[in-house]
Every structure is written in structure tokens, then in C-alpha cells.
Amino acid sequence: MTTPADLHDVRDPELPGRLLTLERDELVPLLRSRADADFALPVAACPGWTVRDVLAHCSSALIRVVEKRFEKGVFSPECNDRDIAERADWSNARIIDELERGMTEAGPVIARSDGRLDAVALGEWVHAGDVRVTFGEPGAYAGRGLPEALTLLGTITRARGHVPLHADLDDLDEPLKLGEASGERPPGRYIGDAPTLLRLYAGRPLDGAAAYELAGVEAAELNIFGD
């Protein structure tokens, strides 16, 4: 993985859909192979939610994108809880079916948007990592979609004017430049691996993560899903 940092400067409208497709092809077979009891496991990254709840949230969010249902308060905690409750009587298989449909059909809709929906695709990818951690599966916050996730992270953090950071990643030749580049604040610096960086930006627990160095910025400032 040797994507130059400069390639992250322009939004690629097809990128969120590619990330969703890559994750769909890995996650859906994994989910279909698990026993029903596994869907009742608690997810540490999402206190109060089980694997089933996380998947119901993911599938409902994507179907909202597909169907362009963005009423007031959409994607708020209250909205998320309602979406999960609406699927309380569904079988696990039905939730997976909806998730697969959403991961297939949401990409083109996101591509036609102005970029504000890009974070939905990244959030889905992060939640797939949450589920892998719960299952004890390898590749949490990594896998085939990692290069696309890093590029999308760069696009989102710049669009939001997020705190600047230069990340020296173990498997990139050049530093990954994240956040705004106005020069008003000197960029922080991260040294470590990509999955741990993504955990920091997603506000995920670091239990079992690789060691890293962070200077010039607090870890809490990096969280893009905590707003």
C-alpha cells in the first residue's frame, strides 16, 4: 500500500461505494457463517448494543441513503434507536439481507451527493471492524478496504476542517495528510500503523492495538464521530 498523500486532496465520488463493496464482499459471508447466538454478543465499541443492534443500525442507515429518507434528526441517537427497534422482530438473516442490499445500492447515491454522506460509508466500515473485534476475528479496522478507508478519512477530515495531522504510517511511503491545511495550527504527528490511526479517528477502544506515538494533538481531538 503506497498511495501518495497528494492523491487524497480531491474527493473521489466513487470511493465510498468502492469501500462499501469491498467490505460487503468480506463481511456478509462472515456474518452468514456465524451462529445466531453470536448476534447477541455485546459490542464494546457501542455500549448497550449487541452485534445484531449494530448490524440493524448499519443496514437501516444505508437503506435511508438508498431511499433518500433524511427527515429531521436523521442519524441521531434517537433515530438510530428507533431504526433498531423497528427491526426487533426480524430474523438475523433478514437484517443481513438488508445490509447486503444497502452496501450494494448506497454507493451510487453517495457518489451523486455533495460529499456530506461520505462519512456514512466510513462509519459502516468502522462498524464492520467493531463486529470483527467482538467475534475475535482478525483484520479489524484493516482488510482489503484499508487503503480506501484512509483516502476517505483524508477527504472527510479536510472537508470538515478537522484538526491537521501528518500520519507516518508503517506501510505508506509518504506521510498521510489529514485535516485542514490553512496553516493556522501546526499539524500534529502520528507514528504507528493504520488500523490504530483509524481507531483513534473513530473513537474506538485501543485494547489490543499496536503501540503508537501522537504529538501536537490530543487523541480526543481526532474523533470524527463524536460530534
From TrEMBL:
Highest rank taxon of the organism: Bacteria
InterPro entries assigned: DinB/YfiT-like, Maleyloyr_isom, MDMPI_metal-binding
Name of this protein: Maleylpyruvate isomerase family mycothiol-dependent enzyme
Entry annotated with the keyword Isomerase: yes
GO molecular function: isomerase activity; metal ion binding
Cited Pfam families: MDMPI_N
Keywords: Isomerase, Pyruvate
Domain Mycothiol-dependent maleylpyruvate isomerase metal-binding: residue ranges: 21-106
Keyword rRNA processing: no
